[in-house]
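Bug: token stream looks shifted between consecutive jobs. Job 1:
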Amino acid sequence: MKKLLVLACIMVGAVVTVAAQENPLKAYAGKYVFAAGSPVAEVVITVEDSSLVINSAMGTTAIEKKAVDTFYLAQYDASVIFKRGADKSVTEVAIMVQGMELVGKKEAVVAATPASSPKAKLSEAYSELFIDKYTR
């Protein structure tokens, strides 16, 4: 019985550990805005099928990982290097293409508060109606 309990605990621990592992490429995902007058105004980096995809007004293409924080954009024969801040989070991207270095700053992600979503507002309205109706 003890062996079965220990085995069950190990299995649960393994499942929790695997579920908690996050795709390391997600750190690069986000919107990067370039300086005014740059050939590219902004790019959006997403994770699709275990690879990074760069989206801009010039098109969408996958980028190939070469090293830590370094990728290759084959379509334009360009190096893509992500830079990190003091807290080790990705803060900007530098794209070296045709002798130019384009540097884009990562925009901060603003999480929507639950109360700001339409579903939450509807739920809140129903709650108020229910309370009014049954507390009088």
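Job 2, same session, no restart:
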Amino acid sequence: MRFMVLVKADHNSEAGVMPSEQLIVEMGKFNEQLVKAGVMLAGDGLQASSKGARIKIGPDGKRTVIDGPFPETKELVAGFWMIQAKSKQEAIEWFLRCPAEVEIRQVFDAADFEPVIKSDEGRAVMDAEREFRKRTNT
């Protein structure tokens, strides 16, 4: 099972305040444990939303680009991990050791979408997704 683990943004991360050296060291040691155990697939911190953009899709399908910053800090992400774990409980056990407050969300697998796939085009998309996952070992 794959999980995305999210670190929520706060006023400091949105203001561009860098984490303390102590937190960086603790996070580095935690990441090293994840890597050594073969759990971590990816992970990074994110720049403030002032350096980002959103693309909104209106009811008519028109796309609108909105440059950051975004006002609602509670809706923003400051960093993430992609991990591979046997269960949600294993993911929780790993992140109880994390030096940051996090949210853990399971990622859909291609098989989760199979009940709604009815067309040849849909099956081709799902086959391509499975092939990608096999090639990237994710």
